[in-house]
Amino acid sequence: MAFISFRRPDGTASYGRIDGDRVIDCGAVADTPADLKAAIAAGVLDTLDAGPSLGLAEVLLLPVIPHPSKILCVGHNYESHRQETGRAKVDHPSIFTRFADTLIADGQPIIRPRASTNLDFEGELAIVIGRGGRAIAEADALDHIAGYACFNDASIRDWQWHTTQFAPGKNFPGTGAFGPQLVTPDEAGDLSDVRVTTRLNGEIVQDQPIRDMIFPLAKIIAYISAFTPLSPGDVIATGTPGGVGAKRTPPLWMKAGDRVEVAIGPIGTLSNTIIDEDQLG
Hints:
The chain is mainly β.
């Protein structure tokens, strides 16, 4: 099954299950959870099959989870990306955080800020936590996943490199693209050979199978949950393959008018254009 968060034609927020080119508006049914995060927490995703039907073209997509409590990101989790950045091999995942107010949906513009022109792409697979927990065993970790989505951890590189701490370059408004949909594990199937592919203006700039992760999904969940409790609706962006714009000669920065797409097999395709902050009303 696949689910989206969206705004109805009247502007009110809801969520629902995708049914072909339509969405079943589960949020319109009495006594159902208020939003997708609440539905995940209640453990009722597999029962959501009622509600009025809306055309996908009628609704405005929101980030898959509009307000996750935590967004945790994994750095340098593909060997190709570790090598291009010159980072040393490590025994544990590199973890940093994003703020929920940086998120945008499929179809919304990624914002290149006034403060920099060094806007880079990072196509990634995102995990959405279903069953929360602390100190989750690696053997049990995959059972804690509600579903998967595409993520673009768009980065303001010069701000990321001001110091050894990543947070400034990862938290400019309108730079965390997340969508278009949440795909449940049964629908996604085995993702080992599925590729994370990023295209900029139609040209492939990143392309690598998920099995090439240095730290696989179960290890990431176990490691993160050892130091912080995970809750339903929390998001983990699992790292980007090599090929980022910053490590090309010359660097390949995204600019206003560009289109960037992150495609991950059965998980879908996340598509966003780039605008300059000064273009905002």
